[in-house]
Design a protein that fits this description.
With 181 residues, the chain is of the alpha+beta class. It has 6 helices and 7 strands; from the N terminus they run αβααβββααβαββ. The termini are far apart.
C-alpha cells in the first residue's frame, strides 16, 4: 500500500541511517527534468530493467554501505549500479528494504548484495511496479562523490520511489539518482 511521506524526509532518513549527510536536494516536477532523464525516471517500471534496456547492457551492483536497522525492521543499502561491460556508473541509490515482506531465503540474498534488488525480485517471480513519489536534482558532495567514483559537484537527477508488489505490499523505498542519461 502506498504511504505518502515527505520526499525530503525519506532522503534524509535513507542517507542518515547509513551515516551520510543529506545532499542539498531541489525537488522538481517531472516536466522540469531534462528529457533524457525524464525517459529514464518518469515511469512505473523498476530501474534495473529500465537501465539495462537503455544502456543495452546488464548492470551489476557495487555495495558501498549497508546496515540492518532493528528500529526500522529493515535493511538499508547504498549502492552503485554499473554497466557490466564498461563499469560505467549509471545509478546511485539509497534503499530501505522492509525484510518482513520477504521469505527468509530471499532476505539473505538481499543481505549478500550480489545482484541488484530488481533482478532478485524478478528471479524470485515477484511482480511489482514503481510508484514514484517525487523527482529531484542534487550535486554530489566530496564524500559521496569519492564513494561513488564520480566527480565532486556532479549533478544528478533522480526520484524518490516505492516499489510495490501486485498485492500492494511495500517492497522497498528508495532515493535513486542518475549521473548520466
Amino acid at each position: 500500500m502506498i504511504v505518502r511521506r515527505d520526499p525530503l524526509q525519506v532522503i534524509a532518513e535513507l542517507c542518515g541511517t547509513l551515516g551520510f549527510a543529506t545532499p542539498a536536494v531541489e525537488l522538481l516536477w517531472p516536466e522540469q527534468l531534462p528529457s533524457a532523464f525524464q525517459r529514464l525516471l518518469v515511469h512505473n517500471a523498476g530501474m534495473t530493467s529500465t537501465l539495462e534496456r537503455h544502456w543495452r547492457d546488464s548492470v551489476c551492483l557495487e555495495l558501498l554501505s549497508d546496515d540492518i536497522s532493528v528500529e526500522h525492521r529493515a535493511l538499508f543499502r547504498f549502492v552503485v549500479l554499473r554497466t557490466q561491460s564498461s563499469a560505467q556508473s549509471v545509478e546511485i541509490a539509497f534503499i530501505r528494504i522492509p525484510l518482513e515482506s520477504f521469505a527468509p531465503a530471499l532476505r539473505s540474498r538481499f543481505i549478500e548484495a550480489e545482484q541488484p534488488f530488481g533482478t532478485l525480485l524478478a528471479e524470485a517471480g515477484i511482480r511489482f511496479h514503481a510508484s514514484p513519489q517525487a523527482y529531484f536534482t542534487c550535486e554530489l558532495d566530496a564524500r559521496l562523490a569519492e564513494k561513488c567514483g564520480l566527480s565532486e559537484g556532479a549533478r544528478l537527477y533522480g526520484r524518490v520511489n516505492q516499489l510495490l508488489g501486485d498485492d500492494g505490499v511495500l517492497l522497498c523505498e528508495t532515493a535513486e539518482a542518475l549521473p548520466c542519461a
